[in-house]
Each structure stands twice: as C-alpha cells, then as structure tokens.
Amino acid sequence: MTDASSSVDHPSADNYAEGQVLPPTFYDFERVQERLVEALQFQWRIEGGRWSFASDGPWHLIVRDWWDWASHEDKPVPRIPLSREQHARMEEASGWLTLAPERDRKLVVLAVTALAAGRKQVPWRRLLKPMGLTRGADGLRMRYSRAVTCICHALNGADFRA
C-alpha cells in the first residue's frame, strides 16, 4: 500500500484522510493539554495533594467530639505512591513546558492548574492579575492556544517559529 504519509518522517494531520486514525505518537492540542493536566495532578499527589476547593472556609476549626462515632479511629488516609510509569509520564509532560515560548510558560501553568483543579473552562479573566495585565483575557486564551500548539508541533517534529 502506498500513500503520501509513508514518505514523511514525522506524522502530520494533513497527511491523513478524513476519518483515518492518526498514529499513537501524534500529539494534538487535546492530547497535550490532557497530559499536562495529568502531570500536574500527579505532582499534587507527590507534594501532599492540597485540596484546592473551599480553602477559605472554616474547615480547620471543625473538631470532633467524644460522641462522634469514629473520632477514636481517625487515621490519615494513605496516599498511594506513583508508579514508575506514572512518574515517567509526569516527568515527560513536565519537560514539554520547555517547548513553549518562554514568555507563555507561566500562562500555560496557570491555565493547566485551573483545569487540573476540576474546572471545565479556564477562567481567563482571573488569570489577568497573575500575568500582570489589566485587560486582554481573550488575548491570554489565544496566547495559551498558540503555546500549546507550539508544544504539539515540536513533539510532532514540525518546523515552527514561536
């Protein structure tokens, strides 16, 4: 079988017909973003797994009393360490940040942190202040998109300019 994709060293979505499955080594935007989110969640497991929700609540003031049925049985929940494969995946995806333009790395980390915390969408307006900006939330979204796309192109072996 001869097709145009067999003569290309690096896979590209342009070399495949619509509906044809891309090779497993092809990295698209969604796949890269999912791996970055996964890497951050693995990192949280290593660092102690801070709970990112309701951190401003008075949860630290709650104390169990003697009549609580399980207060005498309180034991810390054991953390399951990462497997070697999970650790390797985390290290690999963390290294991908160096493939993004240097000025956008902080933005990528902030956006991925929001997604890893369980948000369905990145709160671009909330990222303005940490990025030192007062306006331009849509610009941050576009910068993030371009940065992740740069990572995709680098992983797929394409020649790109940041």
Structural summary, described in words:
The chain starts with about 30 loop residues before the first helix and ends in a 7-residue tail after the last helix. The protein is globular and about 60 Å long. It is mainly alpha-helical and about 160 residues long. The chain has four helices and no strands. The model is unreliable at about 1-10 and about 50-55 (pLDDT under 50). Helix 1 crosses helix 2 and helix 1 (about 30-45) crosses helix 3 (about 105-115). Helix content is about 40%, strand content about 0%. It has helices at about 30-45, 85-95, 105-115, 135-155.
- Write down the overall geometry: globular
Query: Based on the structure, what is the oligomeric state of the protein chains?
Result: single chain
In DSSP terms (H or I, runs of 4 or more residues), the helix count works out at: 4
Number of strands: 0
Produce a short descriptive summary.
The chain is mainly alpha-helical.
How are the secondary structure elements laid out?
Layout: H1 29-47, H2 84-95, H3 105-116, H4 137-155
Helix pairs in contact: 1-2, 1-3, 3-4
Distinctive features:
38% helix; mainly alpha; 4 helices; disordered N terminus; 162 residues
